[in-house]
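question for whoever is on the cluster today: can someone run the full assembly for these? two chains, 847 residues total. i dont have access anymore since they changed the login thing
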Amino acid sequence: MSNELEFLSRHVASGKLSRRDFLGRAAALGIAAPFANALLSSAARAAGPVKGGTLKAGLVGGESTNSLDPALMMTQVPFAFGKCWGEMIVELSPDGKLENRIAEEIGSSKDAKTWTLKIRDGVEFHNGKTVTAEDVAATLERHSDEKSKSGALGYMKGIQTIKANGKEVVLTLKEANADLPYLLSDYHLIVQPNGGKDKPDAGISAGPYVVKTNEPGVRHGGERFANYWQGDKMGHADQIEVIVINDATARTAALQGGQVNMINRVEPKIVDLIKRVPGVTIRNHAGPGHYVFIMHCNTAPFDNNDLRMALKLAIDREEMLTKVLRGYGSLGNDFPINASYPLFTEIEQRKYDPDKAKFHYKKSGHDGTVLLRTSDVAFPGAVDASQLFQQSAAKAGIKIELKREPGDGYWNEVWNKQPFCASYWGGRSTQDQMYSTAYLSTADWNDTRFMRPDFDKMVLAARAELDEAKRKQMYHDMAVMVRDEGGLILPMFNQFIDATGAKVDGWVDDPHQELMNGYALAKCWLQA
Amino acid sequence: MSSPVVKLIAQRIALGIILLLAISVLIFAGTQILPGDVAQAILGQSATPESLANLREQLGLNDPAYIRYFRWLGGVLIGDLGTAMSSGQDIATSIKDRLWNTLFLAFWAAIVAVPLAIILGLIAVRYRNGWVDKLISGLALASTSFPEFFVGYLLVYFFAVKWQVFPAISTVYDGMPFGERMQAIALPATALTLVVLAHMMRMTRAAILNVMQSAYVETAELKGLSAFAVIRKHAFPNAIAPIINVVMLNLAYLIVGVVVVEVIFVYPGMGQYLVDHVTKRDVPVVQAVGLIFAAVYISLNIIADIAAIVANPRLRHPK
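^ ran it for u. tokens below:
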């Protein structure tokens, strides 16, 4: 790198030279634009975050029925706004490790049954009170209570006792769980004064922004919290705003017109068009989310593993990935885990094989059509994907009959009720969470009706295992079992596709959730 | 004012009230026909027989339908629309802001659309069958024939993305400065104007042309009045009743038919509110919004009727 360029890029970063001038000078020195741009962004990062301005996000996934109660958060807007005003006990860092937030230290007994959280000193709530161990304990208690209707209740049920003890919170579990810290990073578990027991939707926590406006389904706004405990790392913009834009076209238009600085859920089919817009950057990265066709293993005709195997072999994954996701995703292999999980191991890729499918179909003895229910809301492009499935299966001699269900009521009437339908999963942060949520015999959301006592035992054993190598092997065996005997057809993992407008800096891809795991507004800044 | 007019107006109002009651019965019945009941909808997946029974008791769902209807109607009459199932918020409070926003948008769209449509109609009559008439009619019909989401997206593409003169999204909020608010609603108001323009314009044109065939218009022309003066003084006042009728119909559309436009421009009005709650099967909200829409529609139609009665000289000056 020439000294002159380096000098110039520092000038741009400090605002003495415009970006356009820099690119012109770089071109004069014979540097290609992409490289010059890369140079510029590294200089900007090195120069550090810029404080000030208003950062706005236009997001899908907000309704007038949303509430600030963290227990009730379900969709993207409350999730992303929650990360602005809320502070977590522990969080996943972009590289997949655990990052201690309000808990300064997390330790466990050897049997992974008793866990101790040491609470950080000097963290302040927006209402001026200091965060105490009692607040953390109360938060966990509230989310363990059936009455709170918390989205984290499923995991919290596994905690037997919660005790605040000085500066520590001690948790004892019903069964050993080596993944407890990961569970505590669930986005519902925002620490609130007295756990939010007094007023769950008060919107008070210890995050980088104080809630200023809260108009559910319209917009949410926050102002930087002056006493934030980590002000150098988060909360760069003076104000942040989340505007609810559920319409995909309006969202893109708002980004192009400059009304917002970032948007979520860019549709794969328009990514290539948006890319060409000056100033707009597509931020796509792999995550654990996946699109699926699910069969109930206990319902005829899907109670026959040969029929399930025939259908798994009769789907053309590569075609679906290129046509439905336009390449913004990766191939699925009929188990719900991919490289974004910490303990992932490779298993041979299943391929489209009409001959083998025909063989298994014949062996199953099934005759007639197979009814697949689908809908636009199952996942973006689900109807197209179902038609592709129908065609590729026809080549193997399997007749799939498609039934298009109305989007309204799909999640109540079809998913988890009908024996064969299209659906999606957002993924979880650990294998244990994913398998416990949807593959344990007792799980409410066991949407493939995969009822296998031997599998359940493996889940529980892996959960309690602290030796990583052994655990990896256990998860490998479980994955093979789901892949070869389960009711899941998983053609593809989707990517998160966000986009940012001009001047947004500080973006770091995060494999856990869209918008940098929800932290985009809190961690990004506007170039001066 | 003489008694036949008063009597007619009183009749219309009474009819309107009866109609509104009938609609409230229909709305209530419609929501009862839906599969499942409110208790099931609230509890969703986590419903157990005991919790369902408890909640039904608590919500009074075990009473016969007519009792529940009168209880609901009684609440509505004193301004209590109940609470939303999904968020537990008071419906009347949340609807107030939304309704105000929708009325604000409709008001400005009407301020532009109604005079524009009438003036264009008058011009079209003046130059009837000439190229001006054909151009005006052609453009107006074209803008109405396009579905409103298409018109909306075209406006967004040119005015928000290409030239960046107006914002693509029309989020408005309390305490927003008036200028900004007007800028925010510029595009949705334009889209609405384009959608309702042709109907009013064509009706104005047709109504005046109808009158233009009369003998007294010919007399006026023979007197040597200019073409515009004939239309303004003699034709228009006599054509006003049908014009008011169509204007009112379109005003009603501006309020109750804006769902699509509100969704495209992300405008926080009644339409968005309704869509959000329909997808959640939030029956009390859907009932309340349905009733309000019906009330707006009926009252605007009553106003149109009354205006037509008042504008009719035969009724105003009985023998």
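summary bc i know u wont read the tokens: Chain A has a mean pLDDT of 88. Chain A touches chain B through 32 residues (CB under 8 Å).
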